[in-house]
Specification:
Prefoldin_subunit_alpha, Prefoldin, alpha+beta, Helix Hairpins
Length: about 200
């Protein structure tokens, strides 16, 4: 077939809108023959299956990226909760002028801990890792605000990631079912064409 005999097909032809974060929704084809005839010339089974295979690969990529993101966020949320709990303990101790100094262990590097003495009533600041080897000093209220915002953001992102992952997996199922329907339509079409030839 020449290129003029092959209809143009884009992602928009086999999707219908996006979810809230821009992931396309796979179009379920109920009547494959009617859908094929919406193209000029009619779309072949090979073209339709190829288009849905490409879409499936996109969803597999989305799925892998979202799984990685979910894993990172599942680690981040408890870390932020632990940091907030520690900060609140320091703030409570600071309010008690009779609090005796305490000892704390902190990480110098992987599997290397050091010990520090904390003078609770006189401590007013903490240092927080911001990432990319950057540490910044915060007052207790500033640190509480910063960590709380990060915790809220991480929880929201985790909820969105879980929702997106479920959405993508639904689109994978829709694509697989649609590809199966296209294949079955092609088989029936060929049988009908073979039967017609035998009859004639």
């Amino acid at each position: 077939k020449s290129e003029e005999d092959v209809p143009n097909m884009s992602l928009l032809d086999i999707t219908e809108g996006d979810n809230e974060r821009g992931i396309p929704k796979a179009k379920f084809i109920d009547d494959v023959a009617a859908f094929s005839d919406t193209f000029q010339p009619p779309a072949s089974p090979e073209l339709l299956i190829g288009a849905y295979s490409d879409l499936m690969n996109k969803y597999r990529t989305y799925e892998a990226q979202l799984q990685q993101r979910q894993g990172r966020l599942k680690e981040k949320v408890p870390e932020l909760e632990k940091s907030l709990s520690l900060l609140r303990t320091l703030m409570e101790k600071q309010e008690n002028p009779d609090a005796a100094p305490g000892l704390a262990r902190y990480s110098l590097a992987d599997n290397i801990l050091a010990q520090a003495e904390l003078d609770y009533p006189h401590n007013t600041t903490v240092n927080l890792w911001l990432g990319a080897n950057v540490m910044l000093e915060f007052t207790y209220p500033e640190a509480l605000d910063f960590l709380s915002q990060n915790q809220d953001r991480a929880k929201t992102e985790l909820q969105e990631t879980v929702a997106d992952l479920a959405f993508v997996r639904d689109q994978i199922v829709t694509s697989e079912v649609t590809m199966s329907r296209i294949f079955n339509w092609d088989v029936r079409r060929k049988r009908t064409a073979g039967g017609a030839k035998t009859t004639s």
